[in-house]
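Continuing the series of single-chain predictions for the mutant panel. This is the parent chain; the variants come on the following pages.
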Amino acid sequence: MKTLAAITAVGGYVPDRVLTNKELETMVETNDQWIRERTGIAERRILEKDRATSDMAAEAIKNLLAKTSYGPEDLDLIICSTVSPDHVHPATANIIADKIGATNAWGFDMNAACSGFLYAIRTGSQFVESGMHKRVLVVGADTMSIRIDYEDRNTCILFGDGAGAVLLEPNTEGYGIVDSEFEIDGSGAKYLNQKAGGSKYPTSLETLQNKEHFVHQEGKTVFKYAVKGMADITCDVMKRNNLEGDDIAWLVPHQANKRIIDATANRAGVPAEKVMVNIHKYGNTTNGTIPLCLWEWENQLNKGDNLMLAAFGGGFSWGSIYLKWAY
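Parent structure:
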């Protein structure tokens, strides 16, 4: 049978600090009811000032490895999906490998905004399916609090910090990543971006004064594209594999907005009780949302379960993965 890349372990980490809607009411003109009704978010986690994305990623990986018989030296490859790396370079994956003691692994970072974790899983799976590597670690981690203007009520209510990780290993029993589809539309970049800090708008006193290093989002436009993108691509993958809503054990959507999650589930015909939702606790952790869901629901997953993973992110980028749970 064909070799598939199967998720064989998951781990997660969120900071201790909780930022509630009530606290945000003291920072910007908003209120708890307004935030809950429009986003589904009640609170989010914020990383301590003296820590970085690699610290959260390392904790998530340690949590994962503790459930296995492997040590960090057994990892072949580490892919870190993030939009908030420790540095422009070196890659955060390098720093993570050093922090956990993954002395035999190589690695790199990926950036596809909120879709990045799915892109990274699909990328990592190629190394497993080809036989090049036996143990690929994919971690999605973001410190979004450093990217947010806490005087902008349109964005500061949405994002939180967190990290999740999965281990990919070869499987010849039909379990693992079965199918996937991804799309991008660069014309959407103007609606969701961080304008400054790259080669187009290098860091300057002017870009700092204009707050161009924070996330900019035109919410209504992004919402419209996200609902269509996530729902369409999920349904496309399901149709290609002759799957109906009843065949899906769990829908694992990117946690950007509860209304986007609901719309995707409705289109896919998946009832609410089969949709992983933790946005109320963590907000949008960008690359961390999907692995954090898998981490929290791990004990409810059964071998052979059909999972649909779906995400939409800035860029625009979006994608969906169909996998059979392996344990």
